[in-house]
Amino acid sequence: MEKEIIDLEVKDFSFRYAGASADSLKKINLPIIKNKVTALIGPSGCGKTTLLRSLNRIHDLYPGNEYRGEVNFEGRNILSADEDLIHLRTRIGMIFQKPTAFPMSIYENIAYGLKLQGIKDKTVLSGRIEKALKGGALWGEVKERLNDEADALSGGQQQRLCISRAIAVEPEIILFDEPTSALDPISTEAIEKLIMELKDEVTIVIVTHNMQQAQRISDYTAFMYLGDLIEYGETDKIFNNPDEELTKQYISGQFG
Amino acid sequence: MSATDRRKVINKIVLATSTLFAVIGIFFLFWILFVLLKNGFEALNLSIFFNDGAPPLSVEELEILNKSREGLELSEFEQEELSWIEISGLRHAIIGQLMLAFGATLVGVPIGILAGTYVREYGADSKFANLIRDLSDVMMSAPSIVIGTFVYAIVVSPTGGFSGYAGIVALAIMMLPIILRTTDDMLGLVSNTLREAAIALGAPKYKMIMQVVYRGAKVGILTGILLAVARIAGETAPLLFTSFNTNFFETNLTEPIASLTVTMFNYATSPYEDWQQLGWAAALILAGFVLGLNIVGRVLLSMKHISTKKIFKKRKR
Ligand SMILES: Nc1ncnc2c1ncn2[C@@H]1O[C@H](COP(=O)(O)OP(=O)(O)OP(=O)(O)O)[C@@H](O)[C@H]1O
Ligand SMILES: [Mg+2]
User: Fold this and answer.
1) Does domain A6-251 have CATH number 3.40.50.300?
2) Predicted structure pTM score
3) How far is B307 from chain A (nearest CA, A)?
4) pLDDT one-digit tens code per residue, B3-28
5) Can you tell me which atom of ligand 1 is nearest the CA of A51?
């Protein structure tokens, strides 16, 4: 077995929303392994999204939220006050539950992140855009109509557009928050396949409510419950032979 | 009578009454429109667009003019007289009105959009942002004559006289709250996930706003601007104390400037028939202008799902 590298290390991490009276995440410890898929599972409200959104500090868009503990990435604690958030977010991309195509053309959607990085050269842009759309398994469907508005695409295509847009800036890690929960089975299958292909290039963290999906695509699984990380391990172990009684009950569908 | 029958009867009564009142409402609306169109078109002729204000005509002069317009034979004396007649027009008022509206748009739109952006994107639900919202709601319902007097006090008095600039300031102040609130509301319709998606790609906040959020809201904001222009185009009161009026063609904004509204008021209330006619023509032109803006605004709004970029692209071809 190849050597496992920890890409992102969550250490004694607690999180409290602005104005909340209790922590939504309580002293989480979790390694995110490089070039693997880590699934976050657990019943609704257990803090999966909260944890995921801490990893690129998108919570900072809203004032007053409180981080405690550490999240270490590339040798530094990204929770520190002087973290360069703009740089961080180009290294750690994010895909949302609902597709978030910008109100512009397909081409401009993908070009957006690249232009933010100062890439202006037309031929360089076109090359990167083609590569990203191929990586997002969308190229064949849109290569003839790159200048069409992105909202003319189907939901599944839009989600792949968002994935293409995220990989265009060549991030180290991509965070997915229930990326297929709004999609039909065929689009879901396409995106699952895509995620498994992507892990050669990037590290993936995915929140999902779908137990089969977690089993199909993830290498590691973390089970969360009421803001605590109950159990973490290889996906096979979590689903077939968990250590914790709570994990066993959850994956057998007794609650959640 | 069964319960269903009773319900049906009540239903019919309510329907009949509400239809009746709707018809009454529509009747008056069409009456107003009819009077405006009839008198307006009767008064309208090409010379209105090329001549500026002139002194009113005497009864005799008016007779001669009408005779010549109807193509009747004129005596030598009448022809001599006709060549001396100076016919009044509205060119000065139309140009003045456009200058005032354009100037007010130039001042009011950027301030309104930026203030609306502050309130929605930076102030969010803070006390200060809500105070600005409340104040602009108050400003929106403030009588326009009050705004006129305010500008009189802060611009006209200190600068020593009525001026186009003062009129522009008054109209811009009237536009400001409308544009601020439309921008605020339209930005509010842009979903947070779109903002988050831009931030997640490494966009700084100002770029997120200017490149993604504005794009999502631009049709709505554009509509707000058009409706605000339509709103101020019909204002008389704030101009009475500021740009005042003149019967001459004037493009120097440090001087009093004519507007269709004030001109209309002056002409319509004058005792001279030719001036009264011009009043109707001014009313028609103004109504047409406002109607046009409203139609464009509404069409834009109904095409909300289509991006304006597409529209502009098509037009170019
Ligand atoms: N903006 C917020 N402000 C305050 N509390 C919040 C906010 N968002 C979420 N919470 C709380 O934090 C806890 C964790 O929520 P989170 O959205 O992370 O759950 P989740 O595991 O993603 O649930 P789901 O599976 O339903 O998406 C919940 O108790 C929730 O009520
Ligand atoms: Mg969630």
Assistant:
1) yes
2) 0.84
3) 8
4) 888 999 999 999 999 999 999 999 99
5) 18
